[in-house]
Amino acid sequence: MTDPVIAQKGPYVVTVEEGKSYFWCACGRSKDQPFCDGSHTGTGFLPVRWKADASGEQYFCGCKHTRTPPFCDGTHETL
């Protein structure tokens, strides 16, 4: 698999907790979007670990084509 599956064309808005680690799905196959559920097995993709330095809302990439993983950078506007 060379290109990730587009889970949605727009970000996932998630309320995160300070100090907690999150594993963003990079392949687009997870049923637990925007987070990894292990569906990447055999695809060559790996989840991206991110640790929240503060509680609040974050915009996780849904199209899986961001240049700033795990966050949305607006790339979905060009897909």
TrEMBL record:
Secreted recorded as keyword: no
Keyword Zinc: no
Keyword annotations: 2Fe-2S, Iron, Iron-sulfur, Metal-binding
Domain of life of the source: Bacteria
Annotated transmembrane regions: none
Domain Iron-binding zinc finger CDGSH type positions: 9-46, 47-78
InterPro entries assigned: CISD, FeS-contain_CDGSH-typ, MitoNEET_CISD
A Pfam family of this chain: zf-CDGSH
Protein name: CDGSH-type Zn-finger protein
